[in-house]
Amino acid sequence: MPQAQAPQSAVAALPNLGDGNDLTPSAERRIGDRIARELYRDPDYVDDPIIMDYVQGIWQPLLVASRQRGELLPQLDDLFAWEILLGRDRTVNAFALPGGYFGLHLGLVGIVTSRDELASVLAHELSHVTQRHISRSMSRQAAQAPWLMGAMILGILAASKDPSAAQATIVGGQAAAVQSQLNYSRDMEREADRIGFGVQTQAGFAPQGFVSMFEKLQQSSRLNDAGGFPYLRTHPLNTERIADMQSRVRQSDQSGGNPITTLEHAMVAARARVLSNSAVDALRTWAQEVQPGNLAKLPAAAQAGSLYGATLSALKLRDFALAKATLAHLQERTAGDPAATRLTHLLALEAALVQDDIATAARLQKATNTPADTSRAALLLGAQTDTLSGKAESAAQNLQTWVADHPRDAQAWQLLAAANVAINRPVAAVRAEAEVNVAQLDYTAALTRFKVAQDMARKSKLTSDHIEASIVDTRARQMESTLREQALER
Fold it and tell me: What's the predicted TM-score (pTM) here?
């Protein structure tokens, strides 16, 4: 998609909240890469295709709107990652990191009641990056090596989970200086509100989502915060900011009413809550929610969410009889709503795969793999089904086409590795495993796997392996060059 050129007026109007000694975009991206590499290794990192599809459906319009408004300038657009990393964490939190990386906890996805509320959070965080707030906050530390600054920020993130574990990552008292990367000034918060509001509304989301999200956070701040709302500590609210958003909504042509909870949103939020808390007792509570007497008291969207959560929880508990029953009820409730029906269909496919019912999965995969559903979730679930049902060649072709356009999709590369094993392409399989490491920025591990693939290609008698060998050789040289560059940074 062609990028809109930033109008000169937008550039000139950009307020200068820094001291003119900001980090360069390249240095900031290097810091972000280092942080992201460690977050990929975090046990709490999760790449759930269904939730990520939903988040991307909000995120991509925000990026487009930011370009159109001249907030996202071409230099940053090309250089930064603009990637969201999901965390399997019940806390209500989201944060921007250097280099265009963003963290989003499933706890926040599970608590928002509409796409518009989630869009308001993402638009706010996006604006912190497009306005270079991270660079401005860290400018005093610009002389530090990128790897050291990345380590300190990782320590701050670790401290939000386990203060004792953070001590191994934070470098002495220097972490206090980098804390400003997450604790923005009031001026920066107001600017992110103002810019984010404009981005959100231009992207087509209800502006009331900003106010309702603020009200939700303000209410939570009045309660005893036991760590469930770290977003409040890094983004402190005040009555002035809330009043400003209310005023902007009143002035907006799109003011309307409160954002609506759709069936689709309720189901995605339920999925986020299940994945963020998979303790047995928590999973069992979902079955209580869908008891006829309890379910009847809920609005239609909440009913769909509860049935979705109960089905997914039952699958995790391997209570397949309950999963079948609740899924049938969910199919009845979502009939006639295309977005909700699609999610129900994918859940049915997921259920068949969990139960190793490959025949049912193949039937469902054929039904979902239509031009109407070209989502990543459908592709990945379909590839798993094809590989298991003897159609690995088809799976490999579909995945190869996908990774050509999405080379940073680690999960797709992993599934491609499995498909290549099934069709006896061992070198291609190991190469795909190496690309998983590349996608997650672990270049040392990637180089090791590429060298294994080179070794296998030299010994192989398969023609396909010798063709793949030239790609592997090129990729290995690229990894060696990247690792040398990283060594010089240290």
Answer: 0.87
